[in-house]
Design brief:
Blueprint: H1 3-64, E1 68-79, E2 85-96, E3 110-111, H2 116-123, E4 128-129, H3 132-135, H4 139-147, E5 152-159, E6 165-173, H5 190-202, H6 204-207
Antiparallel strand pairs: 1-2, 1-6, 2-3, 4-5, 5-6
């Protein structure tokens, strides 16, 4: 192989390497751009969902004259030494009257095992407490309600399409009274439980 052929071969090899690097860089930039666009779209979609959820909660609070309405979502908050997941719950959305202490600021990453009594009541559609002092017999939950000056509370589960619980829709009355059409003999009536359950179901799509 003469000198000219060596030069041509060397230049061809260098050109191939340069083309390969340029192509790889182009593909990488294209992938990065696609990921950024996807992330941007996901963010916009989430913001739109959040706005719809907050608007829905605002209407629900007005409908029942409640002082606070909020959503608690279940999530995996890590693992134990046994590698079993830590089941936790956090308040992710909240609307409340002016001047009330916000639950979402403090109620984050609570172990579900500490809320077993309450969670059981919610999943059985029995979490309708018209008078906290008379109905709630769980020390932890009574302490939570008292800490936020709640005198009445109602909660319903939000299920996914497979009937698995993904969240809880709840309301508190602190200074306001329940609308009379939802009360019979100082207790939540059937109309209230049916309506509030429908309200919970209406939020399912936004949370999945």
């Amino acid at each position: 192989m003469d000198f000219t052929q060596i030069i041509i071969t060397l230049l061809t090899s260098i050109t191939s390497v340069i083309v390969a690097l340029i192509t790889a860089g182009f593909i990488r930039r294209k992938d990065d751009k696609a990921k950024a666009e996807k992330s941007k779209k996901q963010l916009i979609d989430q913001i739109q969902k959040d706005e719809l959820i907050h608007a829905t909660l605002r209407e629900i609070r007005r409908k029942y004259n409640a002082d606070r309405v909020f959503i608690t979502q279940f999530h995996n908050g890590g693992t134990f030494y046994t590698n079993s997941p830590m089941q936790k719950a956090s308040v992710t959305y909240e609307r409340c009257s002016d001047g009330l202490k916000r639950i979402a600021d403090q109620f984050q990453n609570y172990l579900v095992s500490n809320l077993s009594w309450y969670a059981s009541k919610v999943l059985k559609n029995q979490a309708f407490f018209y008078d906290i002092d008379e109905v709630v017999d769980d020390i932890i939950m009574k302490s939570v309600f008292k800490n936020y000056s709640t005198w009445a509370h109602a909660a319903v589960p939000i299920m996914d399409n497979n009937k698995n619980p993904i969240a809880v829709l709840a309301m508190d009355w602190v200074i306001s009274e329940l609308p009379v059409q939802y009360v019979d003999d100082e207790d939540f009536n059937d109309e209230f439980t049916e309506e509030f359950t429908k309200d919970g179901n209406s939020l399912k799509t936004y949370l999945m």
